[in-house]
Automatic annotation (TrEMBL):
It holds the Pfam family Porin_O_P. The keyword Ion transport does not apply. It comes from the Bacteria. It comes from Stieleria marina. Residues 1-23 form the signal peptide. The keyword Signal applies. This is Phosphate-selective porin O and P. Keywords: Signal.
Amino acid sequence: MKASVTIGVLAIALLACSNSSQAQESILSSLDQLKQNLDLQEAMLDATARDSVPAPSPANSYVQQSQFVQASSCEDAGTSEVPLVCELPQESNCDADSKESKVRVVDYFVGYDKGFVIRAFDKTKNPSSLKLNGWIQFRHHAFSRDEDSWTDNAGVVRPMRSRNAFDIERARLVYSGTALDSRSSYFLQLDGDTDGSHTVDFFDYWWGWRFSDSFQIQLGKRKVPASRQWLLTARRTRFVERPMTNDFFRPDRTVGIFGVGKIGESIRYQLMLGNGYSSSNLANSRTDEKFTIAATSSFDPLGDIGGSIVDESGESPFRLRLGHSMVYAAQKGSSAGQPLAETNYLRLSDGTRLAQIGAIDAGVTVSDVDVLLYGVDVAAKWNGWSFNAEYFARWIENLRGDGPLSIDELFQQGYYVEGGRFLLPNQLDVNARYSQVMGEFGTSSEIALGANWYPLSRPTSKVSVDVTALDGSPLQNTASDILAGDDGLLFRTQYQVEF
């Protein structure tokens, strides 16, 4: 109303001073446009007052505004989020109150915060949120064999193939956030690759409840918490892939109950009660009725070492991490004495699958085993240098099968050591690795050299190259491009990008 009165007085004054009809029409048109703008601002302020939120910026296309507020001491007092006020197109209606229909306040905004996000301006009123992340690894690998074949412990002669191929190892979308309550969170990760069946897989999906800042329960499917390098995301490995020894001993994913917590700022731990040691994507009909337990913990005595095992900035003070992990799984075969699919991950130290006919004794198939894995790990970084290592010991006991066995237990052990340095901070690093697996049926090893280039000077875009000398691999893992029995040179080049 104040704007209308003011504009009316101004119009009379200007028209009185104007001598031409054309000038008068121009003045009336300009004043009419001014009146509409002032009416819109008044409506915006009214809508904002009704919803008890701070007044918005006049720019109605601005989604989120962060502004520094000057305190009396002239120090930055933080940031504030200003809600979005949008103008809505309306049909002509002379009986409607234009102030009530032209604008509305939106509760959520869309932005980017290490991923695309949908969040509420008032998180106490609307605790639900969504973040979308994605990443892809496009890879070329080539393996040059030194032998034409290898013979497993069951006496089967298996061909050894040279390989040369492009593939997409990991193409992933991750949905995460909170729902219903600020303490309730969710995580869903979809994975696709071309060395499998070219299908999309529900890799991880869990629902969590945060009891405090130091403890959360997660229900669903995720990694069995054992082996430090296994728990490290594949985006942050030092080489194109994890060490051969790590992939030989580590567990996989399973469905269960997980506890994730910390003690103070230096100790972190995870606990699990789940279906199996390696039961990812297996139906319950293909697993036994016995649960698996797992636990891991780490200690950073000199301060938080962070989520990366390398020192990208080249400026890190000396940091140290010590940790250990364990998994226990008792696995039972079918009532007919045949092994279930859950035991397929177990292999002898020469690469022979334990559940294969004749793996231990001719004509006998192992169906029941008890598995205990224990590992200790250490990592350090300082001024661009970094180092990490892990030792594994695995006891496979109480072996039973569909016939007499000459042994009833196996002991396998192995380790890896890797390190490197950033030659150009945030841009270029070089790395070296040695790993070894030892057991009653042979010893295998790998030696690797590699480098990573970060073209955007941050981890979100990375080009990696490495070369690995394999001496009789016990590992069967297409994700690592390493197959059982491999003896030769493996070359890998990979481009990784993420948002």
